Amino acid sequence: MILYFTGTGNTEFIAKEIASRLDDDCLNLLTRIREKDYSAIRSDKPWVICVPVYVCEMPRFFAEFLRNVRLEGSREAYFIFSSGGYSGISGSLAKGIMRRKGITVKGYTDLSLPRNYPVSKLYKLLSDEDARARLAKAYGLLDGIASSIRNGDKLNHRYVFLFEKAITLPFNPVWCRLKFKADDFKVNGNCVGCGLCERVCPLVNITLADKKPVWGNNCTHCMACVSNCPMDAIEYGDVTSQKGKYHIKYHKEYLDGLRKM
Ligand SMILES: Cc1cc2nc3c(=O)[nH]c(=O)nc-3n(C[C@H](O)[C@H](O)[C@H](O)COP(=O)(O)O)c2cc1C
Ligand code: SF4
Ligand code: SF4
Question: N or C terminus of the chain: which is more exposed, having fewer CB within 10 Å?
Answer without folding.
Answer: C
